[in-house]
Amino acid sequence: MTDNIENLTHEMLRRMHGKLDEIQAEMRLRFTGVETGLAAIEHRLVAFHLTDCRQG
């Protein structure tokens, strides 16, 4: 009986670990997208600032 409970517990922990790995991979992709978007915004703001400095 104890072996069965240990096997079930081990299986549940293994599945949870796998799910956490999936979540971690998804979050890395999303953060990469956010960082890329922020970098693009920063680049555009610098370009606007340079244009404004040239006109003023």
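That was protein one. Protein two is written in the same sequence-then-structure order:
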Amino acid sequence: MVKTSSIPVRTRGQFDIIDITDAVRNIAGESGISDGIVNIFCAGSTGAITTIEYEPGLKADIKEYLGRLFPRDENYRHHETWGDDNGSGHLLSALLKTSFTVPVVKSRLTLGTWQQIVFIECDTRSRSRDLIVQIVGCCAD
């Protein structure tokens, strides 16, 4: 069985980090699927989905250290192609990836105690996005 849903998110621009764990957990719990996988996907090349311990210190570290890795004000060739300023966002998204998969066991996500699923905005401007959540598995008896 396959169930598809979405999570709308509105971001404030690069390095906005949004905890989507509860939304994914609710979708999985209401899906009727007892065992399988859930995949969360961002249709776009400047967003990322990953897992972190969602706490203020780590959120600040992500912004600081990923910002050092791909500084926003560098002269990326992508800027020449499209006349925009989000080359760093494309590189961040390529590194972090646009999807994340979690096993579902007995209708529950198998996340660790301090593990949350987050969306990280990599684009240099605010965005409205619909994250696609697809659950594949078997139904509860």
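The longest strand covers residues 128-139. Keep this in mind for the problem set.
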